[in-house]
Amino acid sequence: MKVMIRRAEGQLSAYVPKKDLEEPIVEVEKESLWGGWVRLANGWVLELPWLAEDTRLPITVEAKKRATVEED
Q1: Contact, 45 vs 69, CB < 8 A?
Q2: Is residue 61 classed as helix, strand or coil in its secondary structure?
Q3: Which end of the chain is more exposed for a tag (fewer CB within 10 A), N or C?
């Protein structure tokens, strides 16, 4: 699904146009953000693609929704 990632007022958020849904990102797997999962405030977990660490925001990416996060 297409997801726009942006930073506003120091907070990362994800906007899903098809669902007209914007939620804060409350947890990230990787500090660099890219190539790992992010958890939204509504509980959704999205897999983000690998991108360069210095990728500028806002950006629209193709993300995959998954049900759970594997615990280490």
Answers
A1: yes
A2: strand
A3: C
Task: Look at residue 51 in the predicted model and tell me its pLDDT.
Answer: 97
Once rounded to an integer, what is the mean pLDDT over residues 4-30?
Answer: 96
Average pLDDT, the chain: 92
Query: Domain map of the chain by residue range?
Result: 2-65
Predicted TM-score (pTM) of this structure: 0.87
The CATH fold assigned to 2-65 is OB fold (Dihydrolipoamide Acetyltransferase, E2P) (2.40.50)
Q: How far apart are CA 7 and CA 1, in angstroms?
A: 19
Q: Contact, 57 vs 5, CB < 8 A?
A: yes
Extended beta strands in the chain, E state: 2-8, 11-16, 21-28, 37-40, 45-47, 59-62, 64-66
The answer to whether the beta carbons of residues 3 and 64 sit under 8 Å apart is no
